[in-house]
Fold:
Amino acid sequence: MTASQPTLGNSTSSVLGRRLGGQLLKLRTEAGLTQTDAAKVLSSSITKVTKMERGWVPMRDPDIRALCELYGVRDHATVGGLLELAKVDRERRKAKGWWDDHAIHGVMQEYVSLESAATAIKAWQPAFIPGLLQTPDYIRALRQSPTAQVTKGPEPDEAFVAARLARQRRLSDDPPLALRAVIYEAALRNFPGGTDTARGQLEALTKLAGLPSVSLRIFPFNAGTHPGLNGSFNIISFAAPGAMDVVYVEAPFVERWVEGGESAAAYDELFEMIAERSLEEREAVPFLHKLLKEL
Structure:
């Protein structure tokens, strides 16, 4: 499913809404029931059920409980996960966050609002330093690179820098966003902006790696190849690990959300495989110091 945010009348499809709707659709299908059956138990129209399953509308807890009862879902963890996802989605839809005061456009509006609501993120990045760990000079250098000129949005460079730095406050919030980041060695050796930018960014990474909320690993060249080298992805979690993950996948000219449970789980397995083959956390900072000496 794409990262766009389609609209229908006064309704808006959100990533979390689609994730929740997809779960309810899966449960209904597994129970062998129809939208008519669901509409009857809710005393509503089939149109409402359709909107719920497509993520068009925020969902009420009583409706979710009634559907779970109809579908034979008795597991408290499953029902609780759906209710928590619905709560986060409702809050996300009505919230006015700091990002409303920044020049953030397109898919990043949705991404940043989800990042703000998340409890944890797993980030794999084969080409660049993850956004939550970038220095101002690195951000500016990226924006000025020839590749970025093809894909960057309409926001002024300094407004973009300010917005990205505002995102980084999540790492020191109370409670903080838990970030597990794995960076490919190539991203640590191929810096936009030259030596000064590289030195500043590497020094910043050594400090950020010391934050309690940050787990940093490096995937070295000698670890071989794997499917993740095709592009970066971020796994965004909102509760217990895996309970309601969505995945943001990014490649040249392609940005999309992976909202299905099995598909999101596949990305989680890929991330763990990459992390397992990477340097241990305790080895990351010495590796960064080694790179600094080579500059």
